Task: structure prediction
Amino acid sequence: MSQSAIFKGVVVPYLLLAPQLLVTAIFFFWPAAQAIWQSLLREDAFGLNSEFVWFENFIEVVTDPTWLDAAFRTLFFSAAVAALALGSALFLAVQADRNIRGATTYKTLLVWPYAVAPAVAAVLWLFMFHPNIGIFGRALNAMGIAWDYKLNGGQAMGLVILASAWKQVSYNFIFFLAGLQSIPKSVLEAAAIDGASPRYRFWTIIFPLLSPTAFFLLVVNLTYAFFETFGVIHSLTQGGPGKATETLIYRAYTDGVMNLNLGTSAAQSVILMLLVVALTFVQFRFIERRVHY
Amino acid sequence: MRGRNIWPHVWLVLGVLIFSFPIYITLIGSTHDGATIGRGDVPLLPGTHALENYAQAWGAGGGRYMGTPAVSMLANSLAMALLIAGGKIVISLLSAFAVVFFRFPGRMICFWAIFITLMLPVEVRIIPTFEVMVNLSLVNTMAGLVIPLIASATATLLFRQFFLTIPPEFVEAAKIDGAGPMRFFRDVVLPLSVTNIAALFVILFIYGWNQYLWPLLIINDRGLETIIVGLTKMIGGGDSQNEWNVIMATAVMALLPPVGVVLLMQRWFIKGLVETEK
Result:
């Protein structure tokens, strides 16, 4: 922007920035710095004394087999949620893109689950799959399958994955549909005239052109599964039975809030922060690339 | 040709049915009496107890251990969502305006300081942020619920990007006419930003309404309980003996406002969703 297109003054811009910077400093940087500082300290049981222990908390966290279990569980959970939410959204978006009448109506009918809070999604699914009162829970039991997500860890995990993915499909659907609609129809027609079958057209033209969108959505879905699904897990299974649905974020919460283990909880927070930094970095690298498409 | 086009419809109708079923069964659950649901006989058609269920949820609450009336929880959620959305939009508009239309020392540092908060979602800094709240005695207050969530890198980035598209001639013209920066902000920038503000508002309202972990930590005063946290507290361990009819009525009330906003403002919603992820 040229020199004549900006306003003079130094005080005014600082005043304009002040609210945002103040909130950022107090509620982002201060706690983040404290998390890093605390992750290097160890307090005694009464919180009276603390000593500087370097990376002992981190070593304790990453060598704890139950934490490693939670880490692998989180990977499995996130991969399952992302695969389910991306797969079904892509399938539905391809159907809606086929030049059919009523595409807008279908869009309206499919987008609203986005607005349902993860915790509320959990309540809806609990009501369907409750072993005694849920319509599907009872049906499963009537068929002779011993269904009780409060006792069976695998079933609990399945239910948490379903509830989490259900909510995320509409988001993916919107982006996939937009991506599909931006593919020039002339290219597809040309391929069709050359005798390419619909399946061949999908895998050789549509899918490669859609891959930037798909990759972007993958990062968003993984971030969602890592962090935002706390509400689903907390209201549906509380990490249980046992630790069957305890993800990393849930673990950091129980260690810090329930067990008041400040040092290791802070170390876990720092590890999670690094994870977000990595994911954000990947996402922005990719967005830079997307500009060239 | 017509015959071959039937499959997409079949799949889409199937998809819509699968995705709507959880809501449908919740609506049905909210129209029967507690005993019917407790026995496990949830029918597939509406019952006749809708009015009393909603009345109880609205005015008295449910659950075996405590009852917070939904009307108070809804009011809290509404206040939280509006304050978060409004607050984020106001402070982001101001800071994006400062970064785009002024040149001052430390401009890029300020920009990056805001940008980097993208990497610190509330979930990863739970405990330390909670301590800050205790130090500032903001626990159990509406301010404590809202203020930590109103810093927004996403909104600032969006407005910055949009402000960069405002032609420099507008600024020059304003300066020739003798308008100061705030006059320019009010008479030119704000009117041009209306579409973006509307789109962002829809997204942020949903974000604010659906907050879970933060209210769970900060609020233990029932007078400030939000509907989402209150709803899951009603469920507790998920007993069959719960007043499921009242819980389902509360669930409907908890999801209606954000879903309504999405359906009524769908155009803004999709625009906001796509823009904020750029």
